[in-house]
Amino acid sequence: MLSITTQSQGQITNCPAKLSLGIEGFLGPSYRIELVPGTCSVKYLYNPETFVSSKGTTQKIIQIPTERWSIFAESLNRANVWSWKTNYNNPKVFDGTVWDVTIEWGNQKATARGKNAYPPQSEFVVFEKAIGILIGEDKMTEPAVAPDRR
What we know:
By secondary structure, this protein is an alpha+beta fold. It has helices spanning 66-78, 121-134, and strands spanning 6-8, 11-13, 18-25, 30-35, 41-47, 58-63, 87-89, 97-105, 108-115. The protein has one domain: Mago nashi (Mago nashi protein). Helices cover 18% and strands 35% of the residues. Mean pLDDT is 86; it is low at 4-12 and 141-150.
């Protein structure tokens, strides 16, 4: 269980040591969020039509208040992120949605990725909502785990 305030080399930390996550697809909105090294801010990349490496992607740095980090930490626990498998893959779908997450926070680490497959829907939905709250967008544009995408 992650606690928002952890001891790391004698310092109190209110945000992860490492955070990189994204949900992207050929068609539809895609985003990537990465912790800015040495800060509790994130770099947010968003493309309303396709992958964030494509034309039309916007980028901004978002300073995350401690309260939102706290909510995010609680949501990671509720989503059971620390117990997710490393890989989720649906070999029957060639194009579609890819996602990944790498988090190191205190003594907790999680690395998971997927191609058209996800952890249990109830957990992934909590995770997606937590991302929206973290970056100050309570409603993300479109959940990756719509019933027809499972």
